[in-house]
Amino acid sequence: MKKSFTKTILFAAFLFAVALAGTSCGKKGNITPVTVPDLTTMDVVTTESGTIAYTGGLFNGSTDVSLSSYGICYSATNQTPTTADKKTTDTVILYAYTTKLTGLSPKTTYYARAYAVNSAGTGYGKVVQFTTGDGTTSTGGTVSTLAGNTAADFVDGLGGAALFNSPQGITVGADGNIYVADSFNSAIRKVTAAGDVTTLSGNGSIGYVDGPIATAQFYAPQSLVTDATGNIYVADYGNNNIRKITPAGVVSTFAGSGDAGYADGTGTKATFNSPRGLAIDGSGNIFVADMGNNLIRKITPAGVVTTFAGSRGASYLDNATATSATFNKPNGIAIDANNNIYVAETLNHAIRKITPAGVVTTFVGGNKRTGVVGNPSAIAFDKSWNLFIADQNGRILEITKDKVLKVIAGNGTSGFAEGVGTAGIFNSPQGIAVDAGNNVYVADYYNNRIRKIVLQ
Q1: Domains of the chain by range and CATH?
Q2: Residue among 163, 159, 168, 161 at smallest CA distance from 151
Q3: I need a surface site. Which of 60, 286, 303, 376 has the fewest CB within 10 A?
Q4: What is the pLDDT of residues 6-23, one digit of tens each?
């Protein structure tokens, strides 16, 4: 009886050891079941020629080492395209890939979606329907100078008699006037529709002084935005903060301590590092392209600063989680009717998109497509939600609400010339804005001018 009991104990111990060994082996191998890839299809932007389109895919989670192929499948007849239809085969950059569709027919509706194949099967993103350009090239807009001339100085006046020094940011206020961040003059200038230039605040000297607009000082302001009640917010680049100018003519510090750094918080307890672009949504929240921190920050109307997107590393990474994505010196910023945020990234040659849910994708361009939008420095929507882009390389671009990419002015060379479309020449355009009449205004940095483009 005792012998039988001993055998039973030994056998049980053996089974436990086998089970434990199996568990240990599983842990050591870190075996995770392979699942079908989960993807998001990026926006599709087409060209005027109608033969080319740009899009991409985003993995909603980590990429799988067992992936055998991935890209975009598309068709003009199959509304749920598969890998049996036309497709691209692309290279993943960590969580995402961008691609170029070629051989398309003008003025044709297509259906596209991201795909990826692994050992578990083929995963697809949602279908995106798009219509290609009609095959004609627009003549662009008529470019002229509204104010300023080539000389760099600090002079108020009418048209060419007024002088700027490296104008950077530009916005159109609710009053119809144009406001300019005159960077090297450390001043905020006001330009009427007739081209009459006056100084709203700043005296041409670098400083950091709040108070009445007549005595307030700034340090190389980069961009501005106005709210519904007429307040003007300024990205005060050199002072590392966001300033506020009230309609009553009082300047205050809305957010930022004045020291370069990174900290969320309320008002002056928050810190920024070389804030660049500004945009405001319908609820009065301000979004900041915090260039030195490679982040997109959010400021509530109460002045509470949080980090909305980015993880401080200077690189290029789309991601399904906003704070896991990365940017490289984000510059301009704009918000559409659905509260999607668009970011112009000069060094990544891209316009990035951040959804309200925090998904970061490449809207157009990128390091694989450096010539598509060039070196975008600023972006702005018109009232019909067409997106305008200032390319530092000397072009002004438009992406229509139907996602057709056009060149409306400039030809990629630096210089100065008035004219229609590509005959108009710029020298490092840095700021862009659109008025209620769909006139486009450009802060032409090295030409020290405010240019006006009347669309055809």
Answers
A1: 39-131 (2.60.40.10), 141-455 (2.120.10.30)
A2: 163
A3: 60
A4: 443 333 333 333 333 343
